[in-house]
C-alpha cells in the first residue's frame, strides 16, 4: 500500500463500506501503516517548511503511536527530516503528575520522540500535570488559546480507549468540549494499571484536550491495533453518534481516517459477516464461518438449518453454489467433527486422513512454548497432560522469566524464609533491605528480579512434575527482551530469536505449540510469537522442519472462534480437575494477581469457563456434548 491508499475517501461510497460512517483502512499488522502515517506527517512537515510555515501537530501517547514515532525518529536521523518548524500539542496528561515520573506522558513523549529529533523545546506543549488546582481552569483555557494562536492543528494523531475515549474524553463528553480536567473512567484506569503496577496507583484525573479541540484539526488519523479494540472500533465506525462513545463524534469530521490492523477490524460488518454486505468469494473457511454464524444466530444446530434460513440471511449466493442446505450442512458438520480428537499428537495405527494430526511418527518430539511460566497449563493443560500420557517426548520452553508479575510481598516472604534458613546470607539480606526502602517508582534490583524469576521457575517445575514431565525436558529461555524490570519491554532482538532457534534446532520437533494470543494486554505474547515466527522463517529450509506442524493456542484473555478451530481436544471432568491442580502450582499468580486486567476471575476459573464454553459452542452446533475442550489453530509456514 502507499500513501494514496490511506487518503481520506468518503465512507459509505462503496458497497462494502455501506455500514460504515468513518473512512478506514485495514492492514495485516501495525508495522506497515505506522510507517505510512509517519510519512504522511513527514510530507506535511516538509510542505509547511517549503512555505516557511509552522506545522502544528496534535500528538497522542500510549501503545498505538509508538511505531509512528520510531519511524519519525528514523526519518530524522537517516533522511534528514527536520522538526525545526514543528509545534506540537499533546492530547493529555495524568493529573496530578510529575514530569519526571516514568508514567507521565511528558516522559513518554521525550523518550519516544522529542529526545531524538531537533524540535525546539519551546515548541513542545504537553498539559502540565503539576498546575495547582486553583490555576487549572485558566491553564486549560490558555492551552486552547495557544493552539488557536498558532493557526490550529494541522494534523491530529489519535488512539482510542476501550471506553471509546479519544484523548481522555471519557463517555459523557460533550461534542464541543475544550481542554479541561476530567475524571478517568474505571476501564481506562484498569487498562493503565499495569504501567502503574496496580490500579490503586493510577491517577483518578487527567487534563485532556476536548472533543471540540480535536475536531478543529484539519486532518485526523486514529490508530487502533488488536482484538481488544475490535468492539469499540465497530461501535465507533458503524454506530450512532453518542456521547457514550465519544469517538463517534469523529463521524462528523470531514477528513478522518481510521487505520486498523486485522485484529481491531474483526467486528466490522464487512469483515465479520461479509455476506451481509456484498457478494462473496466463498472459499471453504468463509463457508464454515458463515454456517457457524447462522447456526449461532438462529440458535439451531447446523444439521437443522434450512434453505430459507440461508436465503433470509444474505447467503442465497452460497446456496446457489452448494445446491441445497442439506448438502452444505453435512459438509460443514463433518468439517467440524473432524477437528475433534483425543489424540493431539496423532492416533497411532489409525487412518489419519480425517484427523487433525498425523499418525506417524507414533512418538513425536514436541515443544510447548509458553510466553509466561504458566500459559502452558492455563491454555493447554489438558492437551499437555494427554501428550505426556500418550508417550510423546514433550518439552516445555518458558519464553520469559515472568518475574515482573510476582508481587513484592510474595518475594519478601521467600526472602525471609531463606534468611531464616541461612541467617548470614548477604544476598538474601540485601534483597530484604531493598524492599525496606523501595518506593513506587523504583525498578527492582537485579537480585530481586532474580528471586522473583526463581519463584516462577520453581512453581513451573512443580506443575510440570505433576504432569509427569522430567525436569530435563523443561527449558527456561529467559528471553532478554523481557528483562527490563518494568512493564515496558524492549523490542524483539536477534538474541531472542537465536535462543529460540537453538532450542528448536536441538530438539527438531514434529509439533510446536505456541501462544497465538494477540490480545495479551502487555504485548508479551505477541513478541514471543514474533520470535517464534522469525525462528521458523530462519529454520524452515532444514529437512526436519518439513515434518514440523505448528499449533497455536490462545492465552488467558481470548479464545479462537469455533469456525477457526482446527484441532479441538475434549477433556473429561477428571482431566478438568487435573488441569486445575496444575494451574494451582503457580501460587504467585493466584488470588488477585498483579496483572489481572478487567476480569477479576482467577486464571484457573477463566480457563475452566473458557474450555466449558468452547465445548458448549460445539454442542450447540450439533456436535457431541463434552465437559470441556481446548482449541488450536494450525500455523502454516
Ligand atoms: C493518549 C490518549 C488515549 C490513548 C488511548 C489508547 O494520549 O489520549 O486516548 O490514545 O487510551 O491507548 P493505547 O494506544 O495505549 O491503546
Automatic annotation (TrEMBL):
UniProt GO BP: carbohydrate metabolic process; N-acetylglucosamine catabolic process
Domain named Glucosamine/galactosamine-6-phosphate isomerase: residues: 37-257
Domain of life per record: Bacteria
GO MF, one annotated term: glucosamine-6-phosphate deaminase activity
Enzyme class: hydrolase
EC number annotated for this UniProt entry: 3.5.99.6
PANTHER family linked to this entry: GLUCOSAMINE-6-PHOSPHATE DEAMINASE-LIKE PROTEIN BT_0258-RELATED, GLUCOSAMINE-6-PHOSPHATE ISOMERASE
Identification of the protein by name: Glucosamine-6-phosphate deaminase
Amino acid at each position: 500500500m502507499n500513501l494514496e491508499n490511506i487518503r481520506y475517501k468518503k465512507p459509505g461510497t462503496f458497497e462494502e463500506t455501506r455500514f460504515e460512517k468513518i473512512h478506514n483502512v485495514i492492514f495485516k499488522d501495525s508495522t506497515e501503516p505506522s510507517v505510512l502515517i509517519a510519512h504522511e506527517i513527514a510530507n506535511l512537515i516538509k510542505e509547511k517548511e517549503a512555505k516557511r510555515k509552522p506545522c502544528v501537530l496534535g500528538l497522542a501517547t500510549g501503545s498505538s503511536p509508538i511505531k509512528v514515532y520510531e519511524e519519525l525518529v528514523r526519518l530524522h536521523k537517516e533522511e534528514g527530516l527536520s522538526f525545526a518548524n514543528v509545534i506540537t500539542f499533546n492530547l493529555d496528561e495524568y493529573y496530578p503528575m510529575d514530569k519526571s515520573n516514568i508514567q507521565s506522558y511528558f516522559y513518554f513523549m521525550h523518550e519516544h520522540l522529542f529526545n531524538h529529533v531537533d524540535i525546539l523545546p519551546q515548541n513542545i506543549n504537553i498539559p502540565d500535570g503539576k498546575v495547582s488546582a486553583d490555576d487549572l481552569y485558566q491553564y486549560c483555557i490558555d492551552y486552547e488559546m495557544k493552539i488557536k494562536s498558532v493557526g490550529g492543528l494541522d494534523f491530529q494523531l489519535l488512539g482510542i480507549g476501550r471506553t471509546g475515549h479519544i484523548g481522555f474524553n471519557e463517555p459523557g463528553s460533550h461534542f464541543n468540549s475544550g481542554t479541561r480536567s476530567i475524571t478517568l473512567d474505571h476501564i481506562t484506569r484498569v487498562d493503565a494499571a499495569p504501567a502503574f503496577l496496580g490500579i490503586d496507583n493510577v491517577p483518578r484525573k487527567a487534563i485532556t484536550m476536548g472533543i471540540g479541540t480535536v475536531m478543529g484539526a484539519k486532518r485526523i488519523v486514529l490508530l487502533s491495533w488488536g482484538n481488544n479494540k475490535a468492539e469499540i472500533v465497530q461501535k465507533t465506525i458503524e454506530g450512532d453518534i453518542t456521547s457514550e462513545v465519544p469517538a463517534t463524534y469523529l463521524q462528523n469530521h470531514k477528513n478522518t481516517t481510521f487505520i486498523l490492523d486485522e485484529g481491531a477490524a474483526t467486528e466490522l460488518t464487512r469483515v465479520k459477516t461479509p455476506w451481509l454486505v456484498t457478494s462473496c468469494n466463498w472459499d471453504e473457511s468463509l463457508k464454515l464461518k458463515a454456517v457457524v454464524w447462522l447456526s449461532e444466530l438462529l440458535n439451531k444446530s447446523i444439521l437443522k438449518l434450512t434453505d430459507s434460513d440461508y436465503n433470509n440471511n444474505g447467503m442465497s449466493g452460497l446456496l446457489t453454489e452448494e445446491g441445497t442446505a442439506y448438502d452444505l450442512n453435512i459438509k460443514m458438520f463433518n468439517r467440524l467433527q473432524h477437528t475433534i480428537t483425543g489424540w493431539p499428537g496423532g492416533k497411532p495405527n489409525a487412518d489419519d486422513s480425517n484427523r487433525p494430526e498425523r499418525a506417524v511418527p507414533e512418538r513425536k518430539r514436541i515443544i510447548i512454548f509458553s510466553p509466561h511460566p504458566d500459559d502452558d497449563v492455563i491454555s493447554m493443560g489438558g492437551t499437555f497432560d494427554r501428550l505426556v500420557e500418550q508417550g510423546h517426548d514433550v518439552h516445555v520452553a518458558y519464553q520469559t522469566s515472568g518475574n515482573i508479575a510476582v508481587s513484592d510481598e510474595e518475594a519478601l516472604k521467600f526472602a525471609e524464609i531463606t534468611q531464616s534458613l541461612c541467617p548470614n546470607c548477604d544476598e538474601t539480606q540485601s534483597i530484604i533491605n531493598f524492599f525496606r526502602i523501595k518506593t513506587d517508582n523504583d525498578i527492582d534490583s537485579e537480585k530481586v528480579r532474580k528471586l522473583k524469576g526463581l519463584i516462577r521457575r520453581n512453581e513451573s517445575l512443580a506443575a510440570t512434575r505433576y504432569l509427569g514431565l522430567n525436569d530435563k525436558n523443561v527449558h527456561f529461555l529467559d528471553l532478554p527482551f523481557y528483562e527490563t524490570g518494568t512493564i515496558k519491554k524492549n523490542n524483539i532482538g536477534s538474541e531472542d530469536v537465536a535462543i529460540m532457534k537453538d532450542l528448536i534446532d536441538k530438539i527438531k520437533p514434529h509439533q510446536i505449540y505456541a501462544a497465538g494470543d494477540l490480545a495479551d494486554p502487555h504485548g508479551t505474547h505477541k513478541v514471543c510469537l514474533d520470535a517464534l515466527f522469525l525462528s521458523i522463517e530462519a529454520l524452515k529450509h532444514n529437512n526436519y522442519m518439513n515434518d514440523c506442524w505448528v499449533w497455536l493456542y490462545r492465552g488467558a484473555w481470548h479464545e479462537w472462534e469455533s469456525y477457526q478451530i482446527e484441532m479441538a481436544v475434549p477433556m473429561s471432568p477428571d482431566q478438568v480437575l487435573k488441569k486445575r491442580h496444575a494451574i494451582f502450582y503457580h501460587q504467585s499468580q493466584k488470588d488477585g494477581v498483579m496483572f489481572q486486567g478487567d476480569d477479576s476471575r482467577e486464571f484457573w476459573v477463566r480457563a475452566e469457563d473458557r474450555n466449558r464454553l468452547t465445548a458448549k459452542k460445539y454442542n450447540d452446533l450439533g456436535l457431541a456434548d463434552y465437559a470441556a475442550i481446548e482449541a488450536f489453530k494450525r500455523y502454516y509456514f
